[in-house]
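Collaborator request, handled under Task 6.
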Amino acid sequence: MPKPLTPTALARRWACLAALSRPFLPVYAALPVGAPAPDFRAEAALAGKPFPFHLAEALKKGPVVLYFYPKAFTSGCTLEAHQFAEASEQFEQLGASVIGISNDSIETLTKFSVEACRNKFAVAADAGARVMKDYDAKLLLMPGTADRISYLISSEARIVAVHASLNAEGHVAAMLKAAQALTAGKAKSTQNKP
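Structure tokens returned to the collaborator:
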């Protein structure tokens, strides 16, 4: 008789099933570009230290890349976290900050913030999947789990760019390109003012 699956193994199997079935499912929209970004507060961790995150406060410092991912310490989510960590200095140079979000516990994310995020950016716990719901980021086959969606949010709390793909590749490049365009656009609008 086979052994029962652990919760982690079960989550990995569901994530694989969702990834395999994605091409056959109808695409449903994430928040569109130009939409207001819903404000939220969540427990977060950076470099192994928990702290309260508030989107409105983060936006006072500049644009925010908010990326949703299904489950900490799975292969795709760890790869994506490594890629965001490697690009963190580029985001900082563009005046943008990065925060990842999933419905993992804050205890798990405290470890993830060190091991996968390499102490470079924060990750937040979406208790109750409320933020996922507000951002249309729930995985269709597993509603309590985040889909892989990245948003660039302007300082004015508007969605500037969206990248939705279960493939971890491409999210960082898309958000960097959007942040560069946003910065270039602000530079042009500043130069045009008398």
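The cover message to the collaborator said: "The chain has seven helices and nine strands. Strands lie at 41-46, 49-54, 64-68, 97-102, 122-125, 138-139, 142-146, 149-153, 159-164. Please let us know whether this matches your experimental observations."
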